[in-house]
Amino acid sequence: RPVAMNTVSAPSGNTIAEAKFKATSEAPPAPELVDAWLYGRELHQGGMMEYDQEGKLDKGTLGAFLYTKTAALGVLFNKAFKDIQRWVGDQFAAATAVHEAAHARDHAQGELNSKEVKKGEKQAFETEYKYLRLVDPTGQKLAYARVNLCSPSSIAPKAACDYVTHLAKISWYGEKGDWDGLVSSLGYEDRPGGHDHHDGDGHPSHD
After folding, report:
1. Region 32-59: what's the mean pLDDT?
2. Using 50, 70 and 90 to split pLDDT, how confident is the model at 153?
């Protein structure tokens, strides 16, 4: 989620940079996804992606795009995301970096503000969905990850299961193109009286 003002090395220090659209999809990436990736790479190379070492983010918030009305300040990732990434792998962890990079793209294009929260999230989730379809066009990788991470016999932390379940939810709503339904189900609300200072939400996903 964007934090109007209110930086991961992307989750492994280079998640979004390393993903590089290693796709099994034959279709080229959507232009808006490429734009988000480029903004994310620029933030990463500029040292504007980092883990939250001071506990600024809510426990359930994995990432947040920090910005003022006129400037992007970077992306902050929950330090607990490091452990999740070890279990889900760089490719799926990169979905969160893509989501935050989409906020950076929209901010640069003047399409992000703290009042129209749902609009900003719908745009970011749609970009994240296109990333997931690019790297896992059939959904088989994600289904396999859920079986392994969410089975009763799994030794993976619950947060890892919650994360891939969240990605599956994005995919499910994305297949229907129901972005209003997705952001509503995650509890996002517009802030008519808001000001450009983004704060994190409590969802087991990203901001």
Report:
1. 92
2. very high
Write the secondary structure of the chain as one string of H (helix), E (strand) and C (coil): CEECCCCCCECCECHHHHHCCCCCCCCCCCHHHHHHHHHHHHHHHCCCEEEECCCCCCCCECEEEEECCCCEEEEEEECCHHHHHHHHCHHHHHHHHHHHHHHHHHHHCCCCCCCCHHHHHHHHHHHHHHHHHHHCCCCHHHHHHHHHHHCCCCCCCHHHHHHHHHHHHHHHHHHHCCHHHHHHHCCCCCCCCCCCCCCCCCCCECC
- Cα–Cα distance, 42 to 199 (Å, whole number): 23
- 50 has a pLDDT exceeding 60: yes
- Amino acid letter at 192? P
For the record, the structure tokens of 111 come out as 């399409």
CA–CA separation, 81 and 73 (whole Å): 20
To which residue do tokens 């930086």 refer? 7
Q: What pTM was estimated for this model as a whole?
A: 0.82
